Structure prediction request, 479 residues.
Amino acid sequence: MTDHLTLLQMNDSHGYLEPHQELFYAGGRQEYRMAGGYARIAALFEEIRDARRDQVLAFDCGDTIHGTYPAVQSKGEALIPVLNALGFDAMTAHWEFAYGPEQFRKVAARLDYPVLAVNCYDEATGDLVFLPSTVCEAGELQVGVIGIAATIVDKVMPPSFSEGVRFSLGNAELPGQIAHLRDDEGVDLVVVISHLGFPQEVQLAREVDGIDILLSGHTHNRLFEPAVVNDTVIIQSGCHGSFLGRLDLTVENRRVKHFDHSLIVVGEEIRPDPGVEDLVERVMDPHRERLSRVVGETRTPLNRNTVLEATMDNLLLKALLDATGVEMAFSNGWRYGAPVPPGPVTANDLWNIIPVNPVVSTVEITGRELRTMMEENLERTFARNPYEQMGGYVKRCMGVTLYCKIENPPGHRIQEFFVGGKRLDPDTVYRAAFVTGQGVPSKYGKNREDLDIRAVEALERHLARGPVRADLVGSVTAI
Prediction:
């Protein structure tokens, strides 16, 4: 018997309710174009569902209810009506835990579809916090779906994210869940929706038999061609809702016989769904005046699309140096944050850059600690064992210059380290700026001081001085 199934994937939309600027590559140049918007995503869903009748399932791989001003100010609740209107069949999570596990449970309870996490446990009872799996019907097919939340939530994220819960990798739990779905539930296909990150998920597919489809998240990969690993088809679909992943499957005898894949750009040519557009407008309207205010001008395109250093973070770091008067600054290697092309910068852009608006802080830190901190960060970014990769891109730096060999073993990647043009002295105490909770982990340095200014205000003050540049300067260079 031959059946057909279409899977739709969204991952890492980060609360981007409306169309926004997105960076596209065009051969030897970069282009900025408007993309995304939940009303356009809804229109695509509706068009595909209408064409494929009951043979469509849609999944969200997480990083959905956090990342923009309306999302953060409402602790994710503002997105609930919009997400329910899109009609997903299941989701998993990462930044959803930023509001604390209890708030995420509250949000999850109001969604019309289940949150799945085979690897998130209540510390007190040992029970799973969310369902590990569900079974979805699509035409004549029974599809087993397993969720894996980001394992890093209780390892490198602020402690409040994981209060009362712990996370495993999920690889130990998967075989039992697959057997349950195949043998007890009698499903025809097994789909894993994951937020581990593409390198980890490739390793997972190598190790675990029986996964037909793996929908990947976290690392913002634009996979124009699926990866096929151990008979598992893996896709990931960019970020910010700028892309939608589509897999059309031919299924015979409980196996994928053939597949076609499209990475769909959610472009301006797509007519938005009026109902979802109205829901989005209700969310955005109270914030329009505040967020549309022009606060300055950038002459450098701002984005976070580069691993070692990024122009968007260079702007943030310059603002931190301005606000503190210290000699160096550090911030987290975040991936999220819609690009800002050269021209006006709005308050909305600043909140997209750093939506939690943390306090600006300073710390005294020795040269020896600086080197150890950066070696640790390079290992978490480039670990040879994918399961040991934790977090986003390389920690962002200003006022220091590192030359490193990425291929070297842990603790031996940094070849040269300079501060203000002078070689790093391991015994010298330096002063560094960062934003509270990110940038300089609490185990490094002493005499931490929280200043009476937050990140968005620091950015506004920096931009108020006149047009800014935030070009790449080689803070971290691979040699």
